[in-house]
Amino acid sequence: MNKVLYALLTLAAFTSCANSFNIQGTSNVSSLDGRKLYLKTDQGDSLINLDSCDVVHGQFSFHGTIDSVKVAQVFMDDVNLQFPVVLEKGDITLRLDNTQQRVSGTPLNDKLNDFWTKFTQLRNQYVEIDHEESAAILNGHDEETVNARLIKKALGVYAKGDRLFTKFITENFDNILGPWGFLTRITYDTTPNAFPVWMNDYMYANVVNQLPSWIEYIMAKATDTFKQNPQVKAFYADFQQAQKEMNGTADPAATAIPDTTGTAPTAAVAPPTPAQMAGEPARR
């Protein structure tokens, strides 16, 4: 009897350890001290709080248990800091600075950090193009000519983002990063006013033309594990229904396509820095 009890306790302890996460974070942004951070993940069409903590002398931490590996987001109050982190077994380290955001310590988080760094750099290139456009107009250059030239530059950035997401997703079909990357790309591309105002209409038209074929390309290459992910499966069913409605081969569905990621920016071209979120001006 004692042996059975011991075995059950050992199994329970192992299971608890396997489903627990431990996140240690640091920040050198002084205005974050005393602010409350939240760790949130999506559940259905809403976000739930997994844990919260105060930033004290540049230190913060999150702990908890989950039933499966998930991608979560760090929030300050109700503001998404655009800082994804994979909740998996192991010690996870977050670095939340004004000039650098980094997550590391576990295999999937190392992959995520490499991808997110490259993606953020691409998003920042849209800001640089926007500044280039403003400077050219102020210097008296013809607006139509300038915009035509810079739209081509922006389309080149979009193409790089397309390749980045495609590579990342196809390399991670069988873990949580594949579905997360797939839904994140769709959410970013379809966010209203996702690009600077003067290029937004043109870039959005480009998205409308390219995104459906990209979705079909990913689904054609995808593994069964990826296709059976609940969020991917639900999105793709709604996507196919929407395509049929556009083609006139199906009547409109009764419900709208839900937002399945909870990770998109609200009209932000580049993620604000933690200091900007906290109301501290960026250092130059």
Automatic annotation (TrEMBL):
Residues 1-18 form the signal peptide. Residues 246-284 are annotated as: Disordered. Residues 21-112 form the DUF4369 domain. Keywords: Signal. Residues 249-270 have a biased composition (Low complexity). Pfam families: DUF4369. InterPro entries: DUF4369. This is DUF4369 domain-containing protein.
